[in-house]
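Predict the 3D structure for this chain.
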Amino acid sequence: MEVLRFRVPGGLPSRPTTLGAKMSAREAHTLSWITARLDTILGAPRMWGSREAVELQILTLLEVRRVVCGEDPMGLLDQYVEFVRKRYPGHWNKPLYLILAAEPEEEFVRVLQELRSEL
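Done. Predicted structure below.
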């Protein structure tokens, strides 16, 4: 089995995680909660704030999901930028909520669902 180690920014000790190892009940519960929260936010985004707030909450939950899974969350933002660059080449340096500001909410949610699936 391969053992991964990553450092949490701020100097916290790294947590070894073994790929293929069974997840603890707490980790499974946390992942279940993250999935449910992502579903809830994307199901009723206006309840969770502005589009900017919704996008940032989705990204944060995806980062936390990586931490719970023992993965390094640092690459997520690079993957986010790549996701935006591929779909909106002329706007790669803008967040989705600005790129999709004139689009209906359904389109914004659809793109965030794609983002969730890819990351």
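Residues 25-43 form the longest helix (19 residues).
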